[in-house]
Protein backbone atom coordinates (compact mmCIF):
# COMPACT_ATOMS: atom_id res chain seq x y z
CA UNK A 1 0.00 0.00 0.00
CA UNK A 2 1.35 3.39 -0.98
CA UNK A 3 1.06 6.32 1.38
CA UNK A 4 1.61 9.87 0.22
CA UNK A 5 0.81 13.42 1.15
CA UNK A 6 0.33 16.05 -1.52
CA UNK A 7 0.67 19.79 -1.02
CA UNK A 8 -0.52 22.11 -3.79
CA UNK A 9 -1.13 19.08 -5.98
CA UNK A 10 -1.84 20.98 -9.20
CA UNK A 11 1.46 21.29 -11.03
CA UNK A 12 2.88 21.62 -14.53
CA UNK A 13 6.30 20.49 -15.82
CA UNK A 14 9.14 22.31 -14.13
CA UNK A 15 12.10 21.55 -11.86
CA UNK A 16 11.93 18.37 -9.77
CA UNK A 17 14.09 18.26 -6.62
CA UNK A 18 14.69 15.31 -4.30
CA UNK A 19 14.64 16.48 -0.66
CA UNK A 20 15.74 14.50 2.40
CA UNK A 21 16.89 17.25 4.75
CA UNK A 22 20.58 16.55 4.18
CA UNK A 23 23.35 18.88 3.04
CA UNK A 24 23.09 17.21 -0.36
CA UNK A 25 19.43 18.08 -0.75
CA UNK A 26 20.18 21.63 0.41
CA UNK A 27 22.60 21.97 -2.51
CA UNK A 28 20.04 20.42 -4.86
CA UNK A 29 17.35 22.83 -3.67
CA UNK A 30 19.60 25.86 -4.11
CA UNK A 31 20.47 24.86 -7.68
CA UNK A 32 16.90 23.81 -8.50
CA UNK A 33 15.52 27.10 -7.20
CA UNK A 34 18.03 29.03 -9.31
CA UNK A 35 17.00 27.12 -12.45
CA UNK A 36 13.31 27.60 -11.68
CA UNK A 37 13.75 31.35 -11.26
CA UNK A 38 15.86 31.74 -14.40
CA UNK A 39 13.53 29.67 -16.57
CA UNK A 40 10.32 30.83 -14.83
CA UNK A 41 9.39 27.20 -14.19
CA UNK A 42 7.51 25.83 -11.15
CA UNK A 43 9.42 23.86 -8.51
CA UNK A 44 8.36 20.35 -7.47
CA UNK A 45 9.76 19.00 -4.16
CA UNK A 46 9.68 15.27 -3.34
CA UNK A 47 10.46 13.61 -0.01
CA UNK A 48 10.19 9.91 0.84
CA UNK A 49 10.32 7.58 3.84
CA UNK A 50 10.77 3.81 4.00
CA UNK A 51 8.19 1.29 5.22
CA UNK A 52 9.74 -0.74 8.06
CA UNK A 53 9.77 -4.53 8.11
CA UNK A 54 7.43 -5.77 10.84
CA UNK A 55 7.89 -9.16 12.53
CA UNK A 56 5.20 -9.43 15.20
CA UNK A 57 1.72 -8.21 16.10
CA UNK A 58 2.97 -5.34 18.27
CA UNK A 59 4.87 -3.74 15.41
CA UNK A 60 1.97 -4.34 13.03
CA UNK A 61 -0.27 -2.33 15.38
CA UNK A 62 2.37 0.40 15.65
CA UNK A 63 2.90 0.63 11.88
CA UNK A 64 0.13 3.14 11.22
CA UNK A 65 1.45 5.40 13.95
CA UNK A 66 4.96 5.20 12.53
CA UNK A 67 3.80 5.96 9.00
CA UNK A 68 1.83 8.98 10.15
CA UNK A 69 4.77 10.30 12.16
CA UNK A 70 7.25 9.65 9.35
CA UNK A 71 5.05 11.33 6.75
CA UNK A 72 4.58 14.33 9.03
CA UNK A 73 8.30 14.67 9.66
CA UNK A 74 9.14 14.54 5.95
CA UNK A 75 6.36 16.99 5.11
CA UNK A 76 7.66 19.46 7.71
CA UNK A 77 11.00 19.49 5.88
CA UNK A 78 9.25 19.97 2.53
CA UNK A 79 7.13 22.77 3.97
CA UNK A 80 10.25 24.67 5.07
CA UNK A 81 11.76 24.42 1.62
CA UNK A 82 8.43 25.31 0.01
CA UNK A 83 8.27 28.48 2.11
CA UNK A 84 11.74 29.49 0.92
CA UNK A 85 10.72 28.95 -2.71
CA UNK A 86 7.53 30.96 -2.26
CA UNK A 87 9.51 33.81 -0.69
CA UNK A 88 11.72 33.78 -3.80
CA UNK A 89 8.65 34.21 -5.99
CA UNK A 90 8.70 30.66 -7.40
CA UNK A 91 5.55 28.55 -7.79
CA UNK A 92 6.07 25.40 -5.70
CA UNK A 93 4.36 22.08 -4.97
CA UNK A 94 5.46 19.14 -2.83
CA UNK A 95 4.78 15.48 -2.21
CA UNK A 96 5.62 13.12 0.63
CA UNK A 97 5.67 9.48 -0.47
CA UNK A 98 6.28 6.13 1.16
CA UNK A 99 8.64 3.88 -0.74
CA UNK A 100 11.79 3.81 -2.84
CA UNK A 101 13.15 7.35 -3.38
CA UNK A 102 14.77 6.47 -6.71
CA UNK A 103 11.62 4.93 -8.12
CA UNK A 104 9.48 7.79 -6.86
CA UNK A 105 11.72 10.38 -8.49
CA UNK A 106 11.81 8.38 -11.75
CA UNK A 107 7.99 8.36 -11.82
CA UNK A 108 7.80 12.08 -11.05
CA UNK A 109 10.40 12.86 -13.74
CA UNK A 110 7.84 12.08 -16.44
CA UNK A 111 6.30 15.46 -15.63
CA UNK A 112 9.46 17.55 -15.27
CA UNK A 113 11.85 19.50 -17.47
CA UNK A 114 14.82 18.65 -15.24
CA UNK A 115 15.38 16.67 -12.03
CA UNK A 116 17.96 17.79 -9.43
CA UNK A 117 19.46 15.65 -6.67
CA UNK A 118 22.29 16.15 -4.21
CA UNK A 119 25.07 13.65 -3.71
CA UNK A 120 25.32 11.26 -0.74
CA UNK A 121 22.51 12.63 1.37
CA UNK A 122 21.40 10.83 4.55
CA UNK A 123 18.47 11.23 6.86
CA UNK A 124 16.49 9.32 9.47
CA UNK A 125 14.01 7.78 7.05
CA UNK A 126 15.56 7.66 3.58
CA UNK A 127 19.04 6.37 4.46
CA UNK A 128 21.52 6.98 1.69
CA UNK A 129 19.53 9.23 -0.61
CA UNK A 130 22.12 9.40 -3.34
CA UNK A 131 24.49 6.87 -4.80
CA UNK A 132 22.08 4.12 -5.81
CA UNK A 133 19.31 6.73 -6.03
CA UNK A 134 21.27 9.08 -8.26
CA UNK A 135 22.33 6.25 -10.54
CA UNK A 136 18.77 4.94 -10.79
CA UNK A 137 17.35 8.36 -11.52
CA UNK A 138 20.05 9.24 -14.07
CA UNK A 139 19.66 5.90 -15.85
CA UNK A 140 15.85 5.82 -15.97
CA UNK A 141 14.59 9.41 -15.70
CA UNK A 142 12.31 10.73 -18.42
CA UNK A 143 14.00 14.14 -18.23
CA UNK A 144 17.59 15.39 -17.78
CA UNK A 145 19.03 14.76 -14.30
CA UNK A 146 21.40 17.19 -12.59
CA UNK A 147 23.55 15.59 -9.86
CA UNK A 148 25.07 18.14 -7.49
CA UNK A 149 28.03 16.89 -5.40
CA UNK A 150 29.72 18.49 -2.46
CA UNK A 151 31.83 21.37 -3.70
CA UNK A 152 35.60 21.10 -3.47
CA UNK A 153 37.23 24.32 -2.39
CA UNK A 154 40.79 25.21 -3.31
CA UNK A 155 43.27 24.55 -0.53
CA UNK A 156 45.51 27.23 -2.00
CA UNK A 157 45.14 29.64 -4.94
CA UNK A 158 47.36 27.43 -7.11
CA UNK A 159 46.16 23.96 -6.09
CA UNK A 160 42.87 22.09 -6.08
CA UNK A 161 41.77 20.03 -3.10
CA UNK A 162 39.82 17.72 -5.42
CA UNK A 163 42.12 14.71 -5.88
CA UNK A 164 43.26 13.50 -9.30
CA UNK A 165 40.76 10.98 -10.61
CA UNK A 166 42.00 7.41 -10.89
CA UNK A 167 41.30 6.09 -14.36
CA UNK A 168 39.65 2.68 -14.80
CA UNK A 169 41.67 -0.04 -16.40
CA UNK A 170 42.58 -2.59 -13.76
CA UNK A 171 46.15 -3.42 -12.92
CA UNK A 172 48.56 -0.80 -14.17
CA UNK A 173 45.79 1.78 -14.59
CA UNK A 174 47.98 4.49 -13.09
CA UNK A 175 50.21 4.22 -16.14
CA UNK A 176 47.28 4.56 -18.54
CA UNK A 177 48.14 7.46 -20.85
CA UNK A 178 45.81 10.36 -21.52
CA UNK A 179 46.99 12.58 -24.33
CA UNK A 180 45.37 15.48 -26.14
CA UNK A 181 45.52 14.46 -29.78
CA UNK A 182 43.71 17.31 -31.49
CA UNK A 183 41.65 20.43 -30.74
CA UNK A 184 39.77 22.97 -32.80
CA UNK A 185 41.11 26.23 -31.38
CA UNK A 186 42.92 27.32 -28.25
CA UNK A 187 40.97 28.69 -25.31
CA UNK A 188 40.44 32.43 -25.39
CA UNK A 189 39.02 32.97 -21.90
CA UNK A 190 41.22 33.41 -18.86
CA UNK A 191 41.63 30.42 -16.55
CA UNK A 192 43.14 29.88 -13.17
CA UNK A 193 46.26 27.72 -13.17
CA UNK A 194 46.65 24.80 -10.76
CA UNK A 195 49.88 23.04 -9.89
CA UNK A 196 48.12 19.66 -9.75
CA UNK A 197 46.13 19.98 -12.99
CA UNK A 198 47.61 19.68 -16.48
CA UNK A 199 46.88 22.51 -18.90
CA UNK A 200 45.16 20.16 -21.39
CA UNK A 201 42.72 18.97 -18.71
CA UNK A 202 42.10 22.36 -17.11
CA UNK A 203 38.49 23.31 -17.91
CA UNK A 204 38.23 26.13 -15.39
CA UNK A 205 35.02 28.18 -15.86
CA UNK A 206 33.89 25.95 -18.79
CA UNK A 207 30.97 23.62 -19.41
CA UNK A 208 32.22 20.27 -20.74
CA UNK A 209 30.03 17.90 -22.75
CA UNK A 210 31.03 14.33 -23.53
CA UNK A 211 30.41 13.62 -27.21
CA UNK A 212 30.19 10.20 -28.83
CA UNK A 213 29.99 9.50 -32.54
CA UNK A 214 26.32 8.49 -32.58
CA UNK A 215 23.47 10.58 -33.91
CA UNK A 216 21.99 10.81 -30.40
CA UNK A 217 24.84 13.08 -29.38
CA UNK A 218 23.06 16.00 -31.06
CA UNK A 219 20.43 16.48 -28.34
CA UNK A 220 23.05 16.18 -25.61
CA UNK A 221 25.28 18.82 -27.20
CA UNK A 222 22.47 21.31 -27.78
CA UNK A 223 21.18 20.98 -24.21
CA UNK A 224 24.75 21.60 -23.04
CA UNK A 225 24.80 24.69 -25.26
CA UNK A 226 21.56 25.88 -23.64
CA UNK A 227 23.21 25.56 -20.23
CA UNK A 228 26.26 27.46 -21.51
CA UNK A 229 24.06 30.26 -22.83
CA UNK A 230 22.12 30.39 -19.55
CA UNK A 231 25.27 30.68 -17.44
CA UNK A 232 27.30 32.68 -20.00
CA UNK A 233 30.03 30.01 -19.93
CA UNK A 234 32.24 28.77 -22.77
CA UNK A 235 31.42 25.27 -24.01
CA UNK A 236 33.97 22.56 -24.79
CA UNK A 237 33.01 19.39 -26.65
CA UNK A 238 35.18 16.47 -25.51
CA UNK A 239 35.56 13.02 -27.01
CA UNK A 240 37.99 10.31 -26.01
CA UNK A 241 38.96 6.83 -27.14
CA UNK A 242 41.96 4.57 -26.50
CA UNK A 243 43.79 4.54 -29.83
CA UNK A 244 46.28 1.86 -28.83
CA UNK A 245 46.06 -1.53 -30.47
CA UNK A 246 43.09 -3.63 -29.27
CA UNK A 247 42.55 -1.46 -26.19
CA UNK A 248 45.62 -2.71 -24.30
CA UNK A 249 48.21 -0.40 -22.85
CA UNK A 250 51.43 -1.53 -24.50
CA UNK A 251 53.61 0.02 -27.24
CA UNK A 252 51.86 0.09 -30.60
CA UNK A 253 53.28 -1.40 -33.75
CA UNK A 254 54.54 0.85 -36.55
CA UNK A 255 51.63 -0.28 -38.74
CA UNK A 256 49.08 0.62 -36.08
CA UNK A 257 50.63 4.04 -35.50
CA UNK A 258 50.32 4.77 -39.20
CA UNK A 259 46.56 4.15 -38.90
CA UNK A 260 46.03 6.50 -35.94
CA UNK A 261 45.01 9.55 -38.04
CA UNK A 262 42.27 7.47 -39.70
CA UNK A 263 41.12 5.97 -36.39
CA UNK A 264 40.60 9.36 -34.78
CA UNK A 265 39.20 11.09 -37.88
CA UNK A 266 35.62 9.95 -37.28
CA UNK A 267 35.75 11.52 -33.82
CA UNK A 268 37.27 14.83 -34.86
CA UNK A 269 35.00 15.15 -37.91
CA UNK A 270 31.97 14.58 -35.68
CA UNK A 271 33.22 17.05 -33.08
CA UNK A 272 33.73 19.69 -35.76
CA UNK A 273 30.24 19.11 -37.16
CA UNK A 274 28.71 19.40 -33.69
CA UNK A 275 30.65 22.59 -32.95
CA UNK A 276 29.40 24.14 -36.18
CA UNK A 277 25.82 23.20 -35.29
CA UNK A 278 26.16 24.86 -31.90
CA UNK A 279 27.67 27.99 -33.44
CA UNK A 280 24.74 28.24 -35.85
CA UNK A 281 21.98 27.52 -33.30
CA UNK A 282 23.53 29.29 -30.29
CA UNK A 283 25.59 32.17 -31.68
CA UNK A 284 26.19 33.68 -28.23
CA UNK A 285 28.00 30.56 -27.00
CA UNK A 286 31.77 30.27 -27.41
CA UNK A 287 32.34 26.66 -28.49
CA UNK A 288 35.45 24.57 -29.10
CA UNK A 289 36.35 20.85 -29.10
CA UNK A 290 39.09 18.48 -27.95
CA UNK A 291 39.85 14.85 -28.71
CA UNK A 292 41.89 12.71 -26.29
CA UNK A 293 43.65 9.38 -26.56
CA UNK A 294 42.42 7.76 -23.33
CA UNK A 295 39.41 6.24 -21.61
CA UNK A 296 36.24 8.36 -21.76
CA UNK A 297 35.50 7.87 -18.06
CA UNK A 298 39.02 8.85 -17.09
CA UNK A 299 39.06 11.99 -19.21
CA UNK A 300 35.61 13.17 -18.09
CA UNK A 301 36.25 12.43 -14.42
CA UNK A 302 39.50 14.37 -14.60
CA UNK A 303 37.75 17.24 -16.41
CA UNK A 304 35.19 17.41 -13.60
CA UNK A 305 37.88 18.64 -11.20
CA UNK A 306 37.85 22.07 -12.83
CA UNK A 307 34.74 22.28 -15.04
CA UNK A 308 31.69 24.30 -14.00
CA UNK A 309 29.37 21.58 -15.30
CA UNK A 310 29.82 18.18 -16.95
CA UNK A 311 27.16 17.02 -19.44
CA UNK A 312 26.83 13.40 -20.57
CA UNK A 313 24.29 11.21 -22.35
CA UNK A 314 22.85 8.03 -20.87
CA UNK A 315 23.93 5.81 -23.73
CA UNK A 316 26.32 6.19 -26.64
CA UNK A 317 28.09 4.54 -29.54
CA UNK A 318 31.82 4.71 -29.97
CA UNK A 319 33.90 6.85 -27.62
CA UNK A 320 31.25 6.96 -24.91
CA UNK A 321 29.51 3.62 -25.48
CA UNK A 322 28.11 2.16 -22.28
CA UNK A 323 27.66 5.35 -20.24
CA UNK A 324 25.38 4.56 -17.28
CA UNK A 325 25.40 0.86 -18.13
CA UNK A 326 28.24 -0.33 -15.90
CA UNK A 327 31.73 0.67 -14.87
CA UNK A 328 31.84 3.82 -17.02
CA UNK A 329 28.70 5.23 -15.45
CA UNK A 330 29.90 4.43 -11.96
CA UNK A 331 33.24 6.09 -12.69
CA UNK A 332 31.73 9.31 -14.03
CA UNK A 333 28.78 9.76 -11.67
CA UNK A 334 30.41 8.58 -8.47
CA UNK A 335 33.80 10.25 -8.99
CA UNK A 336 32.88 13.54 -10.65
CA UNK A 337 33.48 16.50 -8.36
CA UNK A 338 31.45 19.08 -10.29
CA UNK A 339 27.72 19.02 -11.06
CA UNK A 340 26.84 16.43 -13.74
CA UNK A 341 23.89 16.87 -16.10
CA UNK A 342 22.77 13.50 -17.47
CA UNK A 343 20.66 13.59 -20.64
CA UNK A 344 18.45 10.57 -21.45
CA UNK A 345 19.05 9.45 -25.04
CA UNK A 346 17.71 5.89 -24.88
CA UNK A 347 13.98 6.69 -24.79
CA UNK A 348 11.66 9.58 -25.64
CA UNK A 349 10.41 12.12 -23.12
CA UNK A 350 6.83 11.62 -21.86
CA UNK A 351 5.57 15.11 -22.63
TrEMBL record:
<dbReference type="Pfam" id="PF00582">
    <property type="entry name" value="Usp"/>
</dbReference>
<dbReference type="InterPro" id="IPR014729">
    <property type="entry name" value="Rossmann-like_a/b/a_fold"/>
</dbReference>
<feature type="domain" description="UspA">
    <location>
        <begin position="15"/>
        <end position="149"/>
    </location>
</feature>
<feature type="domain" description="UspA">
    <location>
        <begin position="207"/>
        <end position="344"/>
    </location>
</feature>
<comment type="similarity">
    <text>Belongs to the universal stress protein A family.</text>
</comment>
<dbReference type="InterPro" id="IPR006016">
    <property type="entry name" value="UspA"/>
</dbReference>
<dbReference type="InterPro" id="IPR006015">
    <property type="entry name" value="Universal_stress_UspA"/>
</dbReference>
<protein>
    <submittedName>
        <fullName>Nucleotide-binding universal stress UspA family protein</fullName>
    </submittedName>
</protein>
